[in-house]
Every structure is written in structure tokens, then in C-alpha cells.
């Protein structure tokens, strides 16, 4: 998806799904054309790298949808913590990202926005958010990090937009 969802779209579930896909593509577009050195170099004091940010977003989707909403037992749900330059090859990070996005799409399509997350994964019986809340949280993560990538890309090679 290259464009935002249609301006006439009013269904909240379709709107969230459309904007999530829009920002997923924006993140990939922001790193498209960067060489391996640029993908693994930081332009900011915190030290995150473009490929590290993609890795973070993949783990974030997994934490919120698979481990969070569905309460699936997943290996290393916080596997991105403090690791802004993953050791895995770029192709593996991108494949992991695409895999997690596909899982998230399937989960979002299979439940109502008002459905509450299962207990036993990320959440206990007392702190379970709705799917709508989770998807909105994931969307704001993407919007924020796409902006970070805008700045990083401009500092790297002058590309904007």
C-alpha cells in the first residue's frame, strides 16, 4: 500500500487495518535503497539504527498481538530490548517483520475491536485491553517511528518525504 486509506472509509476496524498497512509500507519505503552500512549505522545519540528499528517494530507487533492479545507463548517477546543493531542478517530481520505483520493482520481480522485480550500472555486477568486499544497503540508506534526514520533518512542521504 502506498497511499493512506480512502477518505470515505468510516468503519473503525477497516480504518485501523488500512492505516497500519500504510505505516508498515512507509517504514519499508524509508529504508528502501539504503546499503547495509547505512541500515546498521546510527545517526542519533540513542544509537538506534534503521534495521534495528524495523526489528523493534516486528517484536512490538508480536508482543502486542500474538503474546498480548492472543496470549500465545512466544520466544523472547522482548528480544529487541536494548539491541538497536540486530546481529541477524538484514534479510532475516525483514522476513521476521513481514511474518509478524501477517500474523497481526490475521489476528485483527479474526476478532472484534471490542474483544478483550486473553489472560496468560502479556496480560493478567486484571489488565487486559481491547483489540481496538491494542491496534491503536500499535498504530501510534508506527507513526512515531516512521517519523524517526524520516529524520534518519534525511541525515543519511538527504531523501525526504
UniProtKB/TrEMBL annotation:
Q: Looking at the Swiss-Prot or TrEMBL record, what is one Pfam family this protein matches?
A: MST
Q: Can you tell which superkingdom this protein's organism belongs to? A: Bacteria
InterPro entries assigned to the protein according to its UniProt record, in alphabetical order:
DinB/YfiT-like, MST-like
Protein name as catalogued: DinB family protein
Organism in which the protein naturally occurs: Allokutzneria multivorans
What lineage is on file? Bacteria, Bacillati, Actinomycetota, Actinomycetes, Pseudonocardiales
